[in-house]
Specification:
Length: 393
């Protein structure tokens, strides 16, 4: 039957869609505050139940305000990767681990120059890094505790040979005001679905156990053994010897974390609010979130062929199949949903830490109310101010 002119809906007029976030420009990261609270509480509870020290890695949120929430819930301190992160976080924390080798005199000076109110620990794996740090610590006249980093399977940083690690610990003990504070490792090679991690966790348990025994025989029993990640988070208590864990992603979670079962889909707290800007090409819709909003991050830990760069909160079957810098291409081949131009969607990114780092501000929403916002204060390197200050000194 032919439709009359009056009842036919011209395809170029969009059905009005109620948009609770109409005051927000897009693309923009928004955090569901109820989910955020749940993620924070769950980790704090787990740490308490298993008597593990929680030292969250702040590279995920880069916000002193969120760091303060982690500390309020019992975190013993924070973990940072860059001197700038540590500088920014020293506003709210008096115990910071720099889990990154402070190689180079300038970097080491910057680290040793952190506020004296901060109890500082640094993880490193070379005599060069230890010597650079020792010189800077002497010049700044401050004690710094050092974790010797072991490679327990990730093959990124960390000493693979225990005797070398013991020799480095001895060197550190002899380099006052440095002090050997313990051992660090990062199980970043374990990214399988949580129920398929057993073999790698077994190998980790065995190599860590052997290393700890050797350190003890050498009279260097470490006070702290720092490990942990979001994919392995709920297994941390099953790794004997570990005293503290450093998850970062858990605060927001992301598509990778949900895909491997380290969180539920409704634990994904951060989404990128985006607007459909074109439906002109059949089979797809284009949103204003491209690689400069989502990052070009692969889905890690899964072997799916057509993984894309994120999936939609409201339509999980829809993935971002391709990207330019400011365009994200939604694959509509597996959905009956037909978006219209102007419609808003929320993308769960593959890797949330990169998304945060790409933005100046994050908005916090409760249900459909935009409640608050905070700056991503520790994004970037913070080079400008210190160099400018030095130049005018
Ligand atoms: C040294 C170190 N520790 C802890 C973490 C936190 O890992 P995740 O984000 O998986 O929790 C990272 C992440 O890159 C890391 O590099």
């Amino acid at each position: 039957m032919e439709e009359s002119e009056s009842s036919a809906k011209p395809i170029f007029f969009a059905t009005p869609v109620t948009d609770p976030f109409s005051d927000l420009e897009s693309p923009v990261p928004i955090v569901d505050l109820d989910r955020l609270d749940r993620n924070l509480d769950r980790a704090a509870r787990y740490a308490g139940e298993h008597r593990l020290a929680l030292r969250p890695h702040i590279k995920t949120h880069k916000s002193p305000r969120l760091a303060a929430e982690q500390l309020k819930r019992g975190a013993v301190g924070l973990t940072c990767a860059t001197p700038f992160e540590a500088e920014v976080m020293s506003e709210v924390a008096n115990d910071i681990l720099l889990a990154y080798p402070p190689v180079g005199a300038r970097r080491a000076r910057r680290v040793a120059g952190l506020s004296e109110d901060v109890r500082l620990t640094v993880a490193l794996d070379s005599a060069t890094a230890a010597d650079d740090l020792a010189s800077a610590a002497r010049a700044a006249d401050r004690p710094i505790s050092v974790y010797v980093e072991l490679d327990l399977g990730m093959h990124r940083v960390g000493l693979p040979v225990v005797d070398d690690a013991i020799a480095l610990a001895r060197r550190i003990q002899d380099a006052k005001p440095l002090a050997f504070g313990g051992i660090a490792f990062y199980p970043g090679h374990i990214r399988e679905p949580v129920d398929s991690q057993d073999a790698k966790l077994d190998a980790l348990r065995s190599s860590l156990g052997e290393a700890l025994a050797r350190f003890e025989q050498a009279g260097l029993a470490p006070r702290a053994v720092s490990g942990g990640s979001t994919p392995t988070m709920w297994h941390t208590h099953e790794i004997p010897g570990v005293t503290e864990f450093r998850p970062g992603t858990y605060i927001f979670n992301d598509r990778t974390t949900a895909e491997i079962g380290a969180c539920d889909w409704d634990d994904c707290a951060l989404t990128v609010l985006a607007t459909v800007v074109s439906t002109a090409v059949p089979g797809q819709a284009v949103i204003d979130a491209g690689s400069k909003a989502l990052g070009r991050e692969p889905l890690r830990g899964t072997s799916g062929a057509d993984e894309g760069f994120g999936s939609l909160l409201e339509h999980p079957e829809v993935v971002v199949k391709g990207m330019s810098e400011e365009h994200g291409l939604l694959d509509l081949s597996r959905t009956t949903w037909r978006p219209v131009v102007g419609e808003r969607v929320r993308v769960i990114p593959n890797h949330v830490c990169i998304v945060v780092h790409l933005n100046d501000v994050v908005f916090g929403v409760r249900g459909t109310t935009v409640e608050t916002s905070w700056p991503v204060a520790a994004r970037g390197r913070g080079y400008g101010a210190p160099l400018g200050a030095e130049a005018t000194a």
